[in-house]
């Protein structure tokens, strides 16, 4: 008789949700994954980042842990970049999830208990959404604005000392940045901010002064003093819901996403064989 698979819902279709879902489908074939998200690409924070691999600091997460997640991510991406699949790396996440039997569903979850009884485990990669979904008031936005410009002659990245101004060439355009505004929830571009970015980038690279702007983009970095990657058992009216959290990547999600995805896969493996095991309650 075929053994029924463990049903896992991953909330969040940004970089963190998709990479976590892919990692689970690759490492835990006993699970079926459904990624449920209000938005997918191109409408997530992850679509705004130029995606430079650079260590970002999480003051309340151990430095050794941060270093090892960064290294795991760097090694993973370096391998892809040097493989024959490098040209298709951008579509790797979604196609990888689907080819491993996973599903994608576009909808907003207003109450995580709506998933109870349908899924065995919930993996929370909802970034800023965790504020409402899990009542975590320690997560907040850091608004970032960038400009995509047409400047095909720029072949190398340029970044100033404090990292506030940067020029990152990509496949189809060059990204100029940036801004960091703590606690700002608006995702509308600001004209003054765009002018400031252009001025600063022209100062670093004068050939950009006459450049044409393709679009202004804004993203809200899901920021927290410590990443939250842990098991959590929710209990309500005698019912129990197992959640594994993975959020709070702030301004460094690209740089550590694969390391954190692997950590979640390991945590998930711990809850699968003993689904009725009682773990410590939420630390919030
Ligand atoms: C301007 C800018 C530049 C950056 N540059 C870099 C860089 O160079 N290097 C780097 O490493 N990082 C960079 N980052 C940071 C990086 O983009 C983030 O760390 C990363 O995108 C966070 O990914 P995420 O999946 O956690 O969040 P998101 O991309 O925000 O995804 C969250 C997902 O959850 C979904 N969701 C939320 N609530 C719910 C709900 N209730 N129900 C269903 N779905 C829900 C959303 O729809 C979304 O799909 C930058 C960010 C910005 C804004």
Q: Number of helical runs?
A: 6
> How much strand?
25-35%
Query: What are the secondary-structure elements, in order, as H or E?
Result: EHEHHEEHEEEEEHEEEH
User: Looking at this structure, what is the CATH superfamily of the largest domain?
Assistant: NAD(P)-binding Rossmann-like Domain
What is the CATH level 1 assignment of the largest domain?
A: Alpha Beta
Q: Shape, please?
A: globular
Largest sheet descriptor: 6 strands, mixed
What does this 3D model show about the protein?
- By secondary structure, the protein is α/β, with parallel strands linked by helices.
- The chain has 2 domains: 6-137 and 225-271, Rossmann fold, CATH 3.40.50.720; 140-222, D-Amino Acid Oxidase, subunit A, domain 2 (D-Amino Acid Oxidase, Chain A, domain 2, 2-Layer Sandwich).
- Helix content is 27%, strand content 26%.
- It has helices at residues 15-27, 63-81, 92-99, 130-133, 191-204, 253-271; strands at 6-11, 31-37, 103-106, 121-124, 140-150, 158-159, 166-169, 174-177, 181-182, 212-223, 228-236, 239-247.
- The strands form 2 sheets. A 6-stranded mixed β-sheet has the order 3-2-1-4-12-11, with helices on one face.
- A hairpin with a 4-residue loop joins strand 7 and strand 8 (174-177).
- It starts with 5 loop residues before the first strand and ends in a 13-residue tail after the last helix.
- The model is unreliable at 275-283 (pLDDT under 50).
- Bound molecules: flavin-adenine dinucleotide (FAD).
- Flavin-adenine dinucleotide is lined by residues 11-17, 36-39, 44-46, 48-52, 54, 108-109, 125-127, 129, 133, 144, 146, 177-178, 219, 221-222, 247, 249-255.
């Amino acid at each position: 008789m075929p053994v029924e698979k463990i049903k896992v819902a991953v909330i969040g279709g940004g970089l963190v949700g998709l990479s976590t879902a892919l990692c689970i489908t690759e490492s835990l074939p006993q699970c079926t994954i459904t990624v449920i998200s209000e938005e997918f690409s191109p409408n997530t924070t992850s679509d705004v980042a130029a995606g430079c691999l650079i260590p970002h600091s999480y003051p309340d997460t151990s430095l050794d842990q941060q270093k090892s997640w960064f290294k795991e991510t760097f090694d993973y991406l370096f391998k892809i970049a040097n493989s024959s699949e490098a040209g298709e790396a951008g579509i790797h996440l979604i196609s990888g999830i689907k080819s491993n039997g996973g599903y994608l569903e576009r909808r907003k979850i207003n109450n995580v208990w709506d998933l109870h009884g349908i899924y065995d485990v919930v993996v929370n990669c909802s970034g800023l959404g965790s504020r409402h979904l899990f009542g975590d008031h320690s997560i907040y936005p850091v608004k970032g604005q960038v400009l995509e410009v047409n400047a095909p002659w720029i072949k190398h990245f340029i970044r100033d000392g404090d990292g506030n101004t940067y020029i990152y060439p990509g496949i189809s355009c060059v990204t100029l940045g940036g801004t960091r505004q703590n606690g700002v929830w608006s995702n509308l571009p600001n004209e003054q901010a765009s002018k400031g970015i252009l001025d600063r980038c022209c100062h670093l690279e004068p050939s950009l002064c006459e450049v044409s702007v393709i679009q202004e983009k804004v993203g809200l970095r899901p920021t927290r003093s410590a990443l939250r990657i842990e098991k959590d058992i929710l209990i309500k009216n005698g019912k129990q819901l197992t959640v594994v959290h993975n959020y709070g990547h702030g301004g460094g999600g690209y740089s550590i996403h694969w390391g954190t995805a692997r950590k979640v896969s390991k945590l998930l493996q711990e809850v699968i064989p003993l689904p009725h095991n009682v773990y410590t309650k939420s630390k919030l």
